[in-house]
Design a protein that fits this description.
267 residues, alpha+beta, 8-stranded mixed β-sheet, 31% helix, binds nickel (II) ion
């Protein structure tokens, strides 16, 4: 994959994300008005651990365009496992891909997930388009609710399919704001709701990463038995701190991300 193709793919992911989260366009504009550039720290993707669609499948186009696996994370409470991928070009976003341990679900829900994934047509969705192909299956609101009772993550994935769950403004690169607290204040002054599960700021300077996020706004999803409004995507903000050698920490903090996953919870 050439750099040009990579840029095009990242742009298509951004456009897809804006469709589900129009508020992100507004937030991006608020920061663009005050800054020479607004950099994206990372893009988060969600998937199931089944072989056809797992992290390794979804990472294919990134690995072909100069990204390498750089860290792995366990979220035992949410039955998730994640890896992050990064590129030597620091202007390119890190890619954070998590997958649900399907076996953690009830037998009925496992069968449901297997049936959804079985609808994938590898001719229609080659691995290099999996990260923004959207929902390649039919799902009913009843099925969504059955998954929701067990896993918010599984329900979100069944409803929205494969697409960016969030983009992340890299706070260090802003000239308008220095701290996460300032960013949060600024957002709230524009009536933007933040995820306060576990406190508005997740992480700490000691952990080398502080993050906050908006609450996902509701969007109408077409289920096979009707259209229902459910939480879609959110926007995240990350401030990174230097390691002893002076370079910025590039990883993620499982304990903080655990709470950030809750930004798409139904309320
Ligand atoms: Ni994130």
């Amino acid at each position: 994959m050439t750099n040009e193709e990579l840029t095009q793919m990242l742009d298509e992911m951004w456009q897809d994300y804006l469709e589900l989260n129009p508020q992100a366009r507004h937030i991006h504009q608020l920061f663009s008005d005050l800054n020479y550039q607004v950099l994206n720290d990372h893009i988060a993707l969600r998937t199931f651990d089944l072989e056809e669609v797992n992290i390794d499948k979804m990472a294919t186009p990134f690995l072909y365009s100069g990204y390498r696996a750089a860290g792995e994370y366990h979220f035992p409470n949410k039955h998730l496992y994640a890896k992050h991928f990064q590129h030597d070009d620091p202007a390119l976003p890190k890619i954070f891909i998590s997958q649900l341990m399907t076996e953690s679900l009830s037998t009925d829900n496992q069968l449901l997930v297997h049936n959804l994934v079985a609808e994938l047509d590898p001719m229609q969705q080659p691995p290099d388009t999996l990260c923004y192909c959207g929902r390649p299956w039919e799902v009913s609101y009843e099925e969504y609710k059955a998954l929701l009772a067990q896993s918010e993550y599984a329900a979100w994935l069944a409803a929205f399919g494969f697409r960016p769950n969030h983009f992340t403004i890299f706070v260090n690169a802003l000239t308008s704001h220095t701290s996460i607290e300032e960013v949060n204040q600024f957002l709230k002054s524009h009536s933007i709701e933040l995820n306060s599960a576990g406190g508005e700021v997740k992480g700490s300077p000691e952990e080398r990463l502080e993050q906050s996020s908006t609450l996902a706004s509701k969007v109408a999803v077409e289920f096979s038995d009707g259209s229902v409004e459910i939480p879609g995507c959110y926007y995240e903000f990350a401030r990174r701190y230097p390691l002893e050698d002076g370079s910025l920490y590039q990883g993620f903090v499982a304990a903080s991300a655990d709470k950030i996953f809750e930004s798409t919870d139904s309320r």
